[in-house]
């Protein structure tokens, strides 16, 4: 099966750079499966799990808290704010993060502008996705 | 001439100084390697980000409602300088250089009638600049009690800058830091953050005709999220380069110190031996002339 180059980078390091068959990306408006030859896109990511398929099997599952992805027919670049392999996620961490985000959201909802509220909401949703991923693992 | 005992004490004291500087040099070399690795690890992200920004920025820059982070406020009356330096000393002229560079810049801007605000990152340049420009400081950040400076810390600084921009507290923002050329050379330099230098057209053209991207969600929304992130990346890079440069500079400084201590020990040892010989000769002369008198 044909492949494309997947590059997965976080601000602190290059996590992955190799040819893969398929990647499922949690785009802002829904999960998006990318196969070789995809039309060029730039998408924002929400919190979720990126699933990488190689040789017909799921080879990597990584949780991202948010970020961007650039898709071209021959290459996909994922700029993740923060990335953790799903197996290393901890439920306790996720729950703590949800609690923090809920507090921040309540504060933002009380006085901040709609943009700030949306940003806080996005963070909260990302934390919830982290918990869901941790529970599934 | 110093007594033998005093010389011996000096030699011993210089020897222990040499041991310390040698150990510091070794530690700095190890830390330098780690800092360099981290700086290299962060490079791919910055590069990809630049590429993405180039294709987006070109599309949005001309619009009248382009985001402030990209085009600034339009004025240039108030400058915010973010000065990044090391938190520790004993690294030669590393911190002084960036401090002096910043000082000259502040003077230059003020002689043109601009208002200057300073955000100090790292303890050394902050204390250096505070003596003269204490009233211009709007904040200071130090990582002295942190082992590793992560991206989160840079993101926090970027958030502070964004907040100030939203509150219209400055028009132009620049970053002053020691650019890491190689282990021996670090040059203080200035990089403008806001209004952002739209990545050059070449970068956008390099992507070629296939640069017709679809955006999800809209271009504006992605750009609004990408720009603060980019700011954080720039700050992070400056911090990493400063860290690497600091250890490089410290290593060089400690190497020099070790060599100087070695020279000093040689000189003192020669001096010590001469003195000792002179004493022996004197004693002999005294004995011989005493014997002759009898």
From TrEMBL, chain A:
GO MF assignments: ATP binding; proton-transporting ATP synthase activity, rotational mechanism
Membrane disposition: Peripheral membrane protein
Parts forming coiled coils: none
Protein localization: Cell membrane; Endomembrane system
InterPro entries: ATP_synth_F1_dsu/esu, ATP_synth_F1_dsu/esu_N, ATPsynth_dsu/esu_N
Superkingdom of this protein's organism: Bacteria
Domain ATP synthase F1 complex delta/epsilon subunit N-terminal span(s) in chain numbering: 4-83
GO CC annotation, single: endomembrane system
Keywords per UniProt: ATP synthesis, Cell membrane, CF(1), Hydrogen ion transport, Ion transport, Membrane, Transport
Role of this protein: Produces ATP from ADP in the presence of a proton gradient across the membrane.
Assembly behavior: F-type ATPases have 2 components, CF(1) - the catalytic core - and CF(0) - the membrane proton channel. CF(1) has five subunits: alpha(3), beta(3), gamma(1), delta(1), epsilon(1). CF(0) has three main subunits: a, b and c.
Record NCBIfam families: ATP_synt_epsi (TIGR01216)
Sequence similarity: Belongs to the ATPase epsilon chain family.
Protein name: ATP synthase epsilon chain
Gene: atpC
Automatic annotation (TrEMBL), chain B:
Keywords assigned: ATP synthesis, Cell membrane, CF(1), Hydrogen ion transport, Ion transport, Membrane, Transport
GO annotation terms (biological process): proton motive force-driven plasma membrane ATP synthesis
Subunit structure: F-type ATPases have 2 components, CF(1) - the catalytic core - and CF(0) - the membrane proton channel. CF(1) has five subunits: alpha(3), beta(3), gamma(1), delta(1), epsilon(1). CF(0) has three main subunits: a, b and c.
Cellular component GO terms held in the UniProt record: plasma membrane; proton-transporting ATP synthase complex
UniProt-listed InterPro entries: ATP_synth_F1_ATPase_gsu (IPR035968), ATP_synth_F1_gsu (IPR000131), ATP_synth_F1_gsu_CS (IPR023632)
Keyword Membrane recorded: yes
Localization in the cell: Cell membrane; Membrane
Protein name per its UniProtKB record: ATP synthase gamma chain
Entry keyword annotation includes Nucleotidyltransferase: no
Family the UniProt entry places it in: Belongs to the ATPase gamma chain family.
Described purpose of this protein according to its UniProt entry: Produces ATP from ADP in the presence of a proton gradient across the membrane. The gamma chain is believed to be important in regulating ATPase activity and the flow of protons through the CF(0) complex.
Gene3D superfamilies with a match to the protein in the record: 3.40.1380.10, ATP synthase, gamma subunit, helix hairpin domain (1.10.287.80)
SUPFAM superfamilies: ATP synthase (F1-ATPase), gamma subunit
Pfam families: ATP-synt
Organism: Neoroseomonas oryzicola
Domain of life: Bacteria
GO molecular function: ATP binding; proton-transporting ATP synthase activity, rotational mechanism
Membrane topology according to the record: Peripheral membrane protein
